[in-house]
């Protein structure tokens, strides 16, 4: 008699990255219990995965006390992706900090009460690593897993961008503090990513694009006179590689436990390179693209990062280059644009 599949709880399952993680988990043969915030999102996720070993449940607010108590029952592994990523918050505490920090501690507290949970994988961000208050900082800085953003709570409460940086930084620190304080039976693996590009599997509209996709759409909806904007973060990764990293984090042995990993493609990039790819692959968009001045854009290449640990310890092979990633994303954006026009 075949053994029953391992059971994974995936939070925030309707997100851009989470949908890719969900697809890969199902392909790997896991049973997935997925959380979403609303009935509409529940139906959308179920529609994409008809007949799969999938249960979708609604969790309206991940920061509510005890919200994961029942959801984590009979679960072997947890992948926690649910956390806001936008730069339009007006109440930094309620919209950014609380969902990230309390959402993380709530999922850890619930998991600690379940004997079966073996590992919790937390989706974080390079925003917790790159020291944004000091950018551009010393030229040639190479970030690693040892680095932490120095953003303060005062800065996080004062500005939406710092609120996002703070939300990721404080949530990661809260996770490590929880592990040290309570010493649960499970371990954690934290994955830190920069901008994530690639195809969209989840249900989005041009008005509700995730932040990384919205950046690319703004580039292909510009004008030649506008000029290419500064590349605030010269690091990127394909969403399919990030999803694979999450699966590998579940499968990895105890040696990767209670560690953080930087997940990003080799080298650095600029928005100018993105524009060049679009111009090459979609020549009919030429009149919608900003023109490069040829001058170095402020901030480009001032720092880089080392992803060696993700390769050597997680075993992650980065399969997609920038052209693959941007081409797939722009194809989806243009299809979405066409669909919007027809409505």
Automatic annotation (TrEMBL):
Keywords: Oxidoreductase. The keyword Oxidoreductase applies. InterPro entries: 3Beta_OHSteriod_DH/Estase, NAD(P)-bd_dom_sf, NAD(P)_dehydrat-like. Pfam families: 3Beta_HSD. One of its GO terms (biological process) is steroid biosynthetic process. Residues 10-251 form the 3-beta hydroxysteroid dehydrogenase/isomerase domain. One of its GO terms (molecular function) is oxidoreductase activity, acting on the CH-OH group of donors, NAD or NADP as acceptor. Belongs to the NAD(P)-dependent epimerase/dehydratase family. Dihydroflavonol-4-reductase subfamily. PANTHER family: NAD DEPENDENT EPIMERASE/DEHYDRATASE (PTHR10366), NAD-DEPENDENT EPIMERASE_DEHYDRATASE DOMAIN-CONTAINING PROTEIN (PTHR10366:SF814). This is Ketoreductase.
